[in-house]
Amino acid sequence: MKSNSSLNPPYFQLTLFADFGPLRYLFFILCLFIYVTIVSANMVIILAVFLEKSLHQPMYIFISCLCVNSLYGSAGFFPSVYYWLLILYLTVRLPLCGNKLNRMFCSNWPVVQLSCVDTTPNNIAGQFLLVTTIFIPVFFVLYTYLRILLVCSRRSSEFRGKALQTCLPHIISFLTYSISLFLEVSLTRFEADQLNPSIAVILSLAYLIIPPLNNPIVYGLGLPQIKGVVLRFLKKGPAAEI
């Protein structure tokens, strides 16, 4: 039985942060470069859609919203706080018997694992959230695009090429996000001594880095409409287009 003084610690210790000696400067420069790349790439797409009147269409506005979301998630560094009020309530009510989280940032399930009491309701709610936010949307989206591509396969080769050019970036972006989210959720289910710290760091950063970098690459290079506007801006500057 834990003493009352050890219950509900006032802070959490994120154990994946360590002193890497002189290598910490290299890691800092690398992380700074990645973050600046994420901000720059997403801002280019947002500005291109905002400044180019021909891109003021629902599809491109949606793409710019994805880039805004990427900026928000990267800047906040807390993508895992988006849980149902229900989920937060089930976690807040738990008495905690420790404060060490084998994570680079605070997330729900590692906090639940610190509890001194039964966490079955939290586990059930977490599994339900996993199914409803990852597996069901992936199945629905892939099924929808499959039906679209099947219909397009009966049309001309030019029509099929345009349809594939439109659908493929969406599929890649959605799958990248879903896989990264699944890896992040799966990572929280491992005990601290079951996973190599280096692998834990890589999987944690994958969710923070890959989707924000993937969106501007896929949409900026994959869609000729946006690519053409971006290249024109880079050559002439936004001021020349106004």
Give the overall shape, derived from the CA principal axes.
globular
Tally of structural domains: 1
The H-level CATH homologous superfamily, spelled out, is: Rhodopsin 7-helix transmembrane proteins
**CATH classification class:** Mainly Alpha
Judged by helices, strands and strand pairing, the structural class is: mainly alpha
Radius of gyration: 22 Å
How would you describe this structure to a colleague?
The protein is mainly alpha-helical and 242 residues long. The protein has one domain: Rhodopsin 7-helix transmembrane proteins (Rhopdopsin 7-helix transmembrane proteins), CATH 1.20.1070.10. The protein contains 9 helices and 2 strands; from the N terminus they run E-H-H-H-E-H-H-H-H-H-H. The chain has helices at residues 23-51, 58-76, 85-92, 108-112, 120-152, 157-187, 197-222, 224-236, 238-241, and strands at 13-14, 100-101.
